[in-house]
Amino acid sequence: MRLFAAVLPPARAIDELAVAVERLHTLPGSGGLRWTGHDGWHFTLAFLGEVDEEILPVIEERFGRAAARQDPFPLRLHGGGHFGRRALWVGAAGGIDAMRLLADRADAAARRAGVAMEEHRAYKAHLTIARSRTGFDTDLRPYVEALAHFEGTAWTVGELALVRSNPPVPGVPGAQPRYEPVRVWPLGR
Ligand code: 3AM
Description:
Layout: E1 2-7, H1 11-24, E2 33-35, E3 43-50, H2 56-68, E4 73-83, E5 87-93, H3 96-112, E6 127-132, H4 141-147, E7 155-157, E8 159-166, E9 178-186
Antiparallel strand pairs: 1-3, 1-8, 2-6, 4-5, 4-7, 5-6, 8-9
Helix pairs in contact: 2-3
Bound molecules: ligand 3AM.
Residues 4, 44, 47, 118, 126, 128, 165 line the site of ligand 3AM.
């Protein structure tokens, strides 16, 4: 199974973001983008990749410990950014240091559970809202400019989530992976 660790924003944050993202659909070149589904919006903390189901209990134990070590922290959606011409995302503010620490802990927990993690890159909190469609080359900078003043209402991040990514239905153009939370742990308990 394909797994990743994530922070899942609450419904209010999702709804606020949905309004902001709707406005982006009118910008030039938006047809070259594949917008991610609202129900799957998440901040990836660590990508575990394909994991043997047998080690899931060990992963869960390690993740439980990692979550317990971290106190809840405030976060809000804030502005946007892009990775080249590939991905457009919304950023976060408020508890970025705590978020980075949680990402590091999730990465370490997965490693200790025996997951072959890729090299741990500098963590950048981002929630992907669109990706370039194959064969399109949309300039994402106007989208980032349009998001520059976007500020969501702050919430308290109180959970670490382990999410399963189910592959898109084969043969359906534009089909997206389906994300399914496997388990969530409260922070700080
Ligand atoms: O939602 P974002 O973009 O933060 O890009 C994938 C997505 O992150 C990322 O894991 C999240 C859930 O699929 N991802 C997919 N394959 C990856 C890989 N090989 C990857 N991240 C790192 N390495």
